[in-house]
Every structure is written in C-alpha cells, then in structure tokens.
C-alpha cells in the first residue's frame, strides 16, 4: 500500500531498485497531474455550460469520487485518509438551482489560481530532463575515467581524479535535488491540491439559490477537513525540515559513506571478462552478504536496470590487486567456489574499493565515533521531577508551553550547571519556563536510547497503524509494559505531567495532538536515519498522543497476554476439582467452531486463597470481573501461562496472576 520511500543515500548508490522506486514516483506524479488538469476542465465546464448543467455537475462529482491520493509509506494517518477520500454528497449538486453565473467569474479565478500554483508542472518539464541529462553525462564520463591507463604521468592521473570528483559531485547534487523535489511534491500535493478545491466547493455551494442551506450542511465536513489539512501541513513542515537536514548531511558525507542496506555491501563494479581477442570491462550491479558470503552480480543496461537473472557465487577469498600488475586502477581479485581462477573487479574509486575490501574481510580500518549522552539514572529522574514540579507550580497556563523554545545558550548553561553538581538544585528565580521546558526536552533527546527503546520502535509504529482505536490502546498498553522498569517509570512521570498540561489547553493551546507532535520524535527514534523512518514520525506522534490521553489505562497494572486472545475457550470443571477441561476452541476470526481440541490438565497443586491487588474487568465470558480487595478461594494454576483459576462469589473462572497475592 502506498508509494515506496526514496532514500537520499540510495541516490548516491544509484542502484536498479532505486531507479524502479524513482519511476513509481514519476508515474504517480504524472497520473496526479493528468487528474488535476481533468478536474479543472470539468470544473470550467460546470461554470460555462449552464445549458447542460446537470450533466456537467455529475461528471465533476464522479471525477471527484473516483480520485484518491496515494501517500508515502505503508499506512496512512486518519488525517491523510480523510483528505485522500475527498467525498461530497452528490445530492447536494443535483438539487441546486442553476444560478451559477452570478459567481462564475469568482470560481473561474479560483480554478486558474489553483492551476497556476500547481507544484506538479515543473517536476517533469525541467527536473526530470536535467536529471536524465546528468545521468547520461556522468556514466559516460565515468567509463572514460576508468579507462585511463595507470601508466600515464602522475600529474595526468591527479588531474583526471580531480575532474572526476567534480563530475561526481555535480551528478550527486542533481540526483539529491531531484529526489528531494519528488518527496516534496508528493507531500505538498496533499494540501496544496485540496485547499483550492475546498475553496472552489465552498464558492460553488454559496452560488446556488439554496446556498445558505447547502453551506450549513457542508460546514461540519469543511471544519473536519480543515482540521485534517492543518494536521497534514504540520506533519509536512516537521518532516520536511528533518528530510532536508538528512539530504544536506548525506551531500556533505565523505566518499567512503556506507548507505543503509539489507546487504553488507552493494553497488556497481566493472568486471574483467576475457574474450578471444583480449578482454573487456563490463559494468555489473553487485551485492554481498557477509553472513552467508554470497556474492551476486547482475548485468545492467545503460539506464541502470538489471538485464537478465543475476549470477550468485559463494565467496572464498578477496585480495587487493596491485597497481603495477594491471593497467587499471582500483582493482581487486576474488575467488568463488563455483568458478576456477580469480575474478578481477574494478571499483569506482579508492574509497569505494576500501568499502568492498572491508565488507569482504579486507584490512581497511573502521571508523569509530564517540558522543556524550544522558542516562536514565537517579540524576536524570531527579532532574525530570524538578522540571515537572517547577512547570506545574507556575506555568501550566503559559501560552505555547513546550512549543516555544528557550535560548540555546541558557539551555546549555542549565544542563551544565544541573548535571555538573551533585545536589541537583533548580533555582526557580534563575530559570524561566522556556529554558526549563527546553532543558527537559533536551534531556530526553540526548538519551543513549530513546525512552520507548529501539527494540520496540517498529512494534509501536505498527500498533499506531491499527484502524480500531481500542485495539491501538490495548496494543500500546502491552508494549509499554514490555519496556524496562526505569523506562516505564520515567514514561509514567512524563505522561502524567503532559496530561495535566493538556487539561489546560483552553489557556495554553497545548492539546494532546500538539504535545504528541512535540514529544513524538523526542521519545521515539528509529535506529536508522532514513526517509522511510521520517515518514513514520506522524505515527510516532500518534503513539505519544495515545499514551498521554490514555495514561491511566496504558500505565496501569499489567494484564498478561493470553493465548486465548486469538481463541476463546469454554471451561468445564470436573466435580473432583482435580481436572480442568477445555472442551473446544472457537476461532474468533471466522466465528465458527473450526478447531476442536479436548484437553485435560491434572492440577496437582493444592487450592489456596488469594486477595486482589487491583480491580479487573473481564474481557471474555470465562474470565472473572472483580474489584480491588476481592477475596478468592480454590485458587490454583490454569493451563494458560500468567493466569490462575479461582472462585469468586460462587463463580469459577480465570484471573490474572499478577493482579493477586496469596493469603
């Protein structure tokens, strides 16, 4: 579902898969552009052809009903779904009287402005042509460069290297700019297309004789859509800045930059192929997986698309090729199990050869980086609690709380003074609210691992993509209780505070949605910095929103996950009390008794009494509901891990083991 993401790092690698993903985006933009032109044409027909008003209105409405946006990523937020499903009741058009000419000039002006401001026109007219031109030029120059003899003078070789570096940077800049423009257009179309269309519909409705009634009916939908549009715009603005920073960071990366990939190493290599009259160098797209030692090479067309089925070999050894032994630069030899002799490969540069040699157990050195980070220790807990105490004492009603940042120099001075001393004192007179809130955000941002952990990042994102809101809350509740104890305790402190902040949203304008947008990227981060991860920022915001809004549910005592979450079962207690029979399992997916299993478990443990530590509401007919302090008898282990069988008020059923204590 949706379009594949375009990674800036892939544009440097320029792999066949990157070209295919790029082509998907180009096709989608062409389709969107055609649709916009058709929609404008139908809208003008609606205004001009008053004699055939009914037919024109139906065509316009039908075009509108059939169109739906495709967004980047494998799921969409509720805002994007509402924007993409731009549905308007067709009856509103059919029952309107034909007095459209009164407002025709105004509506036509709206359409013209919308067409002129369309961001899709320039992508293919200039950007694509420039990118294709630079691609053809670069690979032509690259082949000439790699064919330079190593016996030429050193000055000539340095000159060739310098010129190739300049040409490579020009190509990389063109590729990065083109990918950035496509990403920008794909995101901007969600609101820059819908906003003029929304204005057009509003003007159309008010032009009819029954305009007032139509406008009243349209108002709730318009308000909801405006809210969705604002959220989409906010998500775009926050994502665009991150994507642009990533693009600049990759643009300034060193030549030996290794792009994130499922392979240990991949990229283009020139392979020496022996022929009867000599040898030729053919360009292949190669991949290498270090764990399995599988080396794959596929012959490519000039445009980068793989031609035919790639060949796969198991690597035996890899040796650097000396310059004086071959009339080519950047070469190395490999031996594979499936072939006799060596295969001579030519990398694209010295840095590229170093990466291949490192991947294949070469002797190239690795680079290590060190950075100072914050920790979830006692000092961190004290700092957060003191910040929360100060904010709640004097600043819960401050306008734009947590949105408005403090002065960087003051924030740095605060962090230095607090964590450098042992008494952890925060003088309320010395620090204003903006500095305190910025320091609190910086602390979570500088943790060695985000509060919601890298390990559970993808599962939190998956939970936020569920359609059912109750299912989202339950899934996030279960994931929160899989966090380490310190992380969960810190999350409890922060979420409880942010819930209090949102309760004053009438004064500070900081709703749960706004707080989620601020703390989403702070509490959750992907371990890899990719465009795909940045497109999930909107779902990170949703996770934090759910944790804040449902604090009492999400951070309450944990219910164990039961195997019967997929199957619901029927209990049958033997008169002897020694066996528990599960007569059958009913598949809740199809709600038919498709799986019948008969089990008998010998309960050798003697019965005991227990007392409830927390209240619990049954989710299935064979579970017990009970208040805090309830007393149970005949308590013994059940067949499901984490659950006990017990009797309460004459009814026997299952209770969570960690909700009770034995007496």
Considering the chains and any ligands shown, give keywords for the structure.
22 helices; 15% strand; 5-stranded antiparallel β-sheet; 6-stranded antiparallel barrel; 663 residues; 15 strands; alpha+beta
Round the mean pLDDT to the nearest integer and report it. 78
Q: Unreliable runs, pLDDT <50, ≥5 residues?
A: 94-107, 364-372, 562-605
Number of strands: 15
Number of helices: 22
Question: What is the CA-CA span between the terminal residues?
Answer: 54 Å
Tertiary shape: globular
Protein name: Rho GTPase activating protein 42a
InterPro entries: AH/BAR_dom_sf, BAR_dom, GRAF_fam, PH-like_dom_sf, PH_domain, PH_GRAF, Rho_GTPase_activation_prot, RhoGAP_dom
GO molecular function: GTPase activator activity
GO cellular component, one term: cytoplasm
Short description:
The protein is α+β, with helices and mostly antiparallel strands and 663 residues long. The chain has helices spanning 8-13, 16-48, 53-66, 78-84, 91-94, 104-116, 121-146, 154-192, 194-206, 211-251, 350-359, 378-394, 408-420, 433-445, 457-464, 469-480, 485-502, 505-508, 512-523, 531-535, 537-549, 551-554; strands spanning 265-275, 278-289, 294-299, 311-320, 331-336, 343-346, 567-573, 579-587, 592-595, 599-602, 608-612, 631-637, 643-648, 651-656, 660-662.
